[in-house]
Amino acid sequence: xxxxxxxxxxxxxxxxxxxxxxxxxxxxxxxxxxxxxxxxxxxxxxxxxxxxxxxxxxxxxxxxxxxxxxxxxxxxxxxxxxxxxxxxxxxxxxxxxxxxxxxxxxxxxxxxxxxxxxxxxxxxxxxxxxxxxxxxxxxxxxxxxxxxxxxxxxxxxxxxxxxxxxxxxxxxxxxxxxxxxxxxxxxxxxxxxxxxxxxxxxxxxxxxxxxxxxxxxxxxxxxxxxxxxxxxxxxxxxxxxxxxxxxxxxxxxxxxxxxxxxxxxxxxxxxxxxxxxxxxxxxxxx
Length: 286
Hints:
CATH superfamily of the largest domain: Tetratricopeptide repeat domain
Strand content: under 5%
Helix content: 55-70%
Mean pLDDT: 86
Distance between the termini: 65 Å
Largest sheet: none
Shape: globular
Number of helices: 15
Low-confidence stretches: 1-47
Order of helices and strands: HHHHHHHHHHHHHHH
CATH class of the largest domain: Mainly Alpha
Radius of gyration: 20 Å
């Protein structure tokens, strides 16, 4: 039996956490996921010895460790145990995949994309209508550079009226098209994502890249500015977007604005690849 639970009011969600992580790290498009979150259950409560109940309890603990405490390694350990206890616990298998993706976003050395794919497919097999997991599978396939397969997974999701966050499917579909080399379809998909969610800043940034690729630098500048000029702090920290806006501004001849964006890019984090590129560009300026 597939278990789903209602989210407890006021409880942090994986949707919010993973979305923020993806924006902050400049990772693909945000994986805004609505896992069924419920109140944690004491593993020593009556019935906890039953594998299915213990699996649910472990999932709740793992979710809390990952979302509320930010302890991804311990969360992975507990989530894997939940799946071992019950391989039909779709939420737990999906959580395992998300944690592996988190590691891919955080450290190349810790990236385990094959494991991320294995567990998200396990989640979908256990619960075929777990639409959030299908979106996650699309992200995994993009990360594995299997863009045509990602399109096959994501395109039906954009047309699924029961999917509560279609903008994420459109956004990920647009990114898959962009990396696949189909810029026109990328622009169409990313514009649809932004029509559904105007504050989807990573989508606006990716749309800017698509316009830039087509040589429409004015549209690219407008789109990347839309991504950055927002009240959302996670969007204002999108380092790659500052680097892109500086590059686009240079092509439009606005050197002063470009310099300001390079400084912001560098100041966000000088140790990332984007930060180093921005610092190097500023050094040449002198």
